[in-house]
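Before the break, one more example. Copy the sequence into your notebook; we will annotate it together after we see the structure.
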Amino acid sequence: MHKDFMMEALKEARKAYDKGEVPIGAVIVKDGRIVSKAHNLRETLKDATAHAEMVAIREACKRLDSWRLSDCSIYVTIEPCPMCAGAILQARIVRLIFGAMDFKAGCAGSIYNFLSDGKFNHTTEIISGIMEDECRNILKKFFEQRR
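Here is what the structure looks like once it is written out:
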């Protein structure tokens, strides 16, 4: 099950890659169905907040007509940054499933574990390493081509 949704997130990451965006994709799921899909759009929109997770959260909130996504899971190809981890927490997303760790900016276990800190009024379950190699490799290929 996790692999199927992560494959959808990877499809989104490939869309970002094709646009020259950092290839990260996100998918939000509720009751076994995809509610929203997104990929990074920072360069396209000239918007520092247009990370895949943020775009997917905004779309899911619109579609579900609520800022509370407490019955939802989010699949992301790479560990969320502080901004995205905060948005996941604020949206009350129950579960984060991601592929590769981000040892430069990750806040779901590598640098810090923002989502399970326990000091906030909500926590999010974290599952990592789903299709890790595929998620890491698309980023690696993207940055190798940029050099």
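The beta strands are 25-30, 33-39, 72-78, 95-100, 125-128. The mean pLDDT is 96. Try to locate both features in your own notes.
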